[in-house]
Amino acid sequence: MPSLIELQNYTWRYLHTDEPALKEVNLTIEEGSFVGIIGPNGAGKTTLAYSINGLIPGQYRGIKKGTVHVAGREVEAYASGSLQRTVGMVFSDPEAQFTAMTVEDELVFGMENLGMTIAEIRERLEWVTELTGLRSLLEKPPYEISGGQKQRVALAAVLAMTPDVMILDEPTSMLDPLSRQQVFDVLGRLKQEQENTVIVIEHNLEHLVPLSDRMILLYEGQVLLEAETRAFFREMDLLLDKYILPPGVMHFFFELLHTGVYAGTLPLTIEEAAEKLAQLFKERAAALQEQRHE
Ligand SMILES: Nc1ncnc2c1ncn2[C@@H]1O[C@H](COP(=O)(O)OP(=O)(O)O)[C@@H](O)[C@H]1O
Ligand SMILES: [Mg+2]
Question: SS3 for the chain, per residue?
């Protein structure tokens, strides 16, 4: 797979600040991958997102060193506003993005702006409405629906425009647990159906981890850890040291690894953990049987 996003020795310092928000970042993100980005507040996660979709250096002033390439071109080489078509963004507060009087218009608006044909718009509208479960809300004003529904509208509106990359910056930080689950359900479906590259910045690891192919830990403007998801959590001591709380099942299996009762890979979900435990018990029982027969 070619690298869709590539940062080389990238440093960004906002104007009138003493410390760079991102320091000497080297990172590649492959096309079609689902990447989770974590790290404490102020780590530079949003700055990284803006650096990929061109808001930095386009809309912000500061000092840049190194390069950021998206789809083979440096971000500065894209005409003003055109990179945002390749890299769609969803924020914590979706309302800020809404402009239309109905959910349907909200979804159609961006597609019309891109000059898509009516047939294309219809087909695309049908697909995102289904994917995000918004059918019954199409006629409603976007400001009259719940927070979770708003977030799904924001997601659908961006998806409708078929960006190559979607970046979601803490998309569920303002949502209750059910709405959070629903947003991640949509992302799960998206992962199965589409080949989009998806980057999700999120504190809630229970939902993020099962979907992520790779994980990145940002800390004080630097990439402290970047790896395939299971390998990432093998660095448990580093993560705990930085107050990153892994999903309970992963932490539990990491402790099992330490005590030596378990030697396999870390499970990503509760279901996987249950299977692994059942297998472990089976093997133990078989070993005991054998001992008895000796
Ligand atoms: N517009 C801005 N001007 C000056 N400093 C900023 C601006 N935005 C963010 N920063 C600083 O950059 C650092 C990284 O911030 P940010 O990327 O928002 O982190 P995160 O998203 O991980 O919480 C922080 O120290 C923050 O104060
Ligand atoms: Mg942020």
Answer: CCEEEEEEEEEEEECCCCCCCEEEEEEEEECCCEEEEECCCCCCHHHHHHHHHCHHHHCCCEEEEEEEEECCEEHHHCCCCCHHHHEEEECCCHHHHCCCCCHHHHHHHHHHHCCCCHHHHHHHHHHHHHHHCCHHHCCCCHHHCCHHHHHHHHHHHHHHCCCCEEEEECCCCCCCHHHHHHHHHHHHHHHHHCCCEEEEECCCHHHHHHHCCEEEEEECCEEEEEEEHHHHHHCHHHHHHCCCCCCHHHHHHHHHHHHCCCCCCCCCCHHHHHHHHHHHHHHHHHHHHHHHHC
193 in the same domain as 274: no
* 6 vs 95, higher pLDDT: 6
Structural domain harbouring 169: 3-246
26 Cα to the center of ligand 1, angstroms: 19
Reply yes or no on whether the pLDDT at 1 is more than 60: no
pLDDT at 20: 97
Rounded distance from Cα 199 to ligand 2 centre (Å): 13
CATH number of the domain that residue 77 is part of: 3.40.50.300
Q: What is the pTM of this model?
A: 0.93
Total of domains in the chain: 2
pLDDT at 22: 98
The mean per-residue pLDDT over the stretch 254-275 comes to 92
Residues with a CB atom less than 6 Å from ligand 1: 14, 17, 21, 39, 41-47, 60
